[in-house]
Amino acid sequence: MKKLTLAAATALTFALAVPMIANAHGHKGANPSGKLDANADGTIARSEAEAAALARFAEIDASKDGFLTRDEMKSAREARRAEIQAKWAEKAEGGERRKPKGDRDPARMEARKAKMAEKSAERFAAADSNGDGKWSQIEFTAQRLSRFAKADTDGDGNITPAEQEAAKAKMKEHCGKWREKPAAR
Fold it and tell me: What is the pLDDT along the chain (185 residues), one digit of tens a residue?
């Protein structure tokens, strides 16, 4: 039951938080601001982003001790990954499913996973301002709001539709540069 509750909480948190982050970083998709824009004015206010961050914190905090550990963060990511994979499988019904990247070159995938785990540990430690090995609500919210601040280019505490479009363009440019890099073999 606890795993089911955690999975449901994770899904709800991502439904609220990921659209704001994706929108702030320029990812396409459904109207992400509509999910965070509580007053439906087309602008994401800092207070709306804070509320989403606090809701996400509560969902990830499986132990309900007011702190997030790397294990809790990992469990939340895995639950979200499972949810996405289920959606992909649902979409692929009746069609040919693409081959998972890990099946193409397992050694390369393991190296990539190790590098991702190392980067994750670095990001976690960087946001752990007091160095106690866990995130408080303040540390978690500060980390989430740093993303908000990047999209809020005029610093007024709101991400306007124009700022959302600018963030999308910036991410598109960044992704284009990444895609142009030669593949490491």
Answer: 555 444 444 443 444 444 444 444 443 333 444 467 778 888 999 999 999 999 999 999 999 999 999 999 999 999 998 998 888 888 877 666 666 655 678 888 889 889 988 998 898 899 888 989 999 999 999 988 988 899 999 999 999 999 989 988 888 887 776 555 555 54
DSSP conformational letter for 72: H
- Angle made by CA atoms 69, 72, 73, in degrees to the nearest 5: 90
Bridge partners (DSSP) listed for residue 135: 68
pTM of structure: 0.64
Sequence-distant (≥ 6) Cβ neighbours of residue 119 within 8 angstroms: none
